[in-house]
Amino acid sequence: MAMCVEDRISSFPDHILCHILSFLPIEEAVRTSIISTKWRYLFASISTIKFDGYLISGLTERNLDSFKNFVDRLLKFPDQVSLDCFRLNDIISWNDEDHNFDVSDWICAALCRGVKEIDLDLENLGDILPALLFTCHSLVTLKLVAVGSEIKVPSDVCLGNLKTLQLINSEFVGDSIHRLISNCHVLEDLAFINCDFEYLREEVNIQSPSLKRLVLVFDLVEFENIDYVVVINAPNLVYFQYTDTVVKGYTLTNMKCLEKAHINIWESDSIDCETSATHLIQGLRNVRSLSLTTDEAIFLTNRLPIFHNLIEFEYDSHGFDGIETWLVEFLHCAPNLETLTLNFPDVAGTRRKALPIEVPSCLSFHLKEIEISCFETHIIEMVSYFLDNAMVLENLIIKMKGMTVTENESHQPIIAVTKEFKEMSNCDFVVLFYIMVRTYQCLAWFCIDVLFVIYISLLISDTFTNRNRLYLMVGLYVCVYVYLCI
Known about the structure:
Layout: H1 14-21, H2 26-31, E1 48-52, H3 61-75, E2 85-89, H4 103-112, E3 117-121, E4 141-145, E5 164-168, E6 171-174, H5 176-181, E7 189-193, E8 196-200, E9 203-207, E10 213-217, E11 229-233, E12 239-245, E13 249-253, E14 260-266, H6 273-282, E15 289-294, E16 312-317, H7 323-331, E17 339-343, H8 361-365, E18 369-373, H9 380-389, E19 395-401, H10 405-408, H11 412-424, E20 428-434, H12 439-459, H13 466-485
Helix pairs in contact: 9-11, 12-13
């Protein structure tokens, strides 16, 4: 007697089933329409619609027309429900001469359904964005990857509920950035990644009282024009990330709530880097945690403010003359610092300078933890300086590169010094080794593991023959030989 299987999933309410379908790729959601009459049109009511380029790869012209009609019907279905997310991603444009898809119309259809999130990654995106996109009151998240095309911001902009705006590989002209941001009255998360500001008039102007997170990351090589000023006025900003060549000028005001900042800046020969970079760091005076990466001492410590709130400082540099002296001078500006992380490898040709006699107050009263990466002989004097003057130090962590047999002898002086440090310190002293394993050794060892598993599998199966044994043994011997030789 056949067992009757109860279909419990189909008994769920339609809105729950549609929510489940929203997690599936669109083609999988459509396939559920054959389950039963109840499921036939459920896919048309899902709240998340995502299309990727692979959906049209390999389709004939007839199938492409069918796909276009399907998308049109899906977005304009009579029993429309509001959309949570509309995503269209592909490197190749969807509206080129071959396909002739009306992407702009699709975006408008999603906007008319009260979409909350739009994510577009298209070539020539700037040419197909409808003006309606910039006046949509339902939009909460907007992500645009324009792949080098200009984002044409209309004069009429009103995104009253937009909280997250992410723009990647886009171009801007005139005052379009200021016009866009100033009309997003509840914006909290803003990111410009590898955008081109070459055609801006004079400045990148970001003023937003609601902004909490700001990311400005630019290609340090591709965009050569730095003849503009970065202006930021964000009184509620909590997180700030900035990566770029130092530009003409910086005006950072009213950052009283700043908790964390990641700054990665590189000098330029065409402007006064010291003055501009100093203005940038001056604007971060209220930050509590600062991560700084530079290629030179490109800002002047004697012009820096006192960072009263700074308790965590991470510094990463490629090395320059007098880096130790510069660091100690900076520590004078951070009287309440508790955690210090350093990473600057030894660079040939750099000259050392004597450390200042005057000890920063943070070493005497507040600094509890120091972590140093790339520990080599060039850093020994600085570690000794810290151990002599850090009166409340609790943890000292030193990270060293792991040594091969041939390197062990040359590293003996460093090992001896670390032992002396451990004996003379009153804090917890930890030395961590980075084990540097060559790529080919890892690959050879992986092949040994795979071949061994195959060997055991065939050994217990009925298909194991002498030829199989010969092939596997030869493979194992070759991998072992390669591993031992490299």
